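Data availability (excerpt). All sequences and predicted token strings are deposited with the supplementary files. A representative entry, TATA element modulatory factor 1 TATA binding domain-containing protein, is shown inline so that the format can be inspected without opening the archive.
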Amino acid sequence: MHKALEQNSAEYALAERQLRKEYMSLTPNSETQYSAALNIPNHAVQAELADALAKYEQSMRQISTLQEKISSMEADSRHLGAVRSELQALRLRYENLLEAHGEKIERIEELELDLADVKKLLKDQVEFFVGKS
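Structure token line:
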């Protein structure tokens, strides 16, 4: 039985090799077989391959450049967001200071009017007491 298995294995391996050779002859597996199957000269295939590789490399450089620009723009966007937040805080602070300044000016004007009233009262009292004597 062991010899029968070996014989079947050997026959199987031989049949597999023959089928593989036949399949490989029908299936192009390299650029020369493709060009031969399509009746295209090898130098034309090489030129087309070189052109495709050049376009691929150019595309990859463009992708790299665009990725750098995106990264830079994302950083700028984050910075812009921080600047906008800071600007909003400064505007709020400015409005609060402007309001406080207006209140101080209003208080000063009220005190100046009060001072003018006190001066007039003092003057009137001095005139009253001087006129009595």
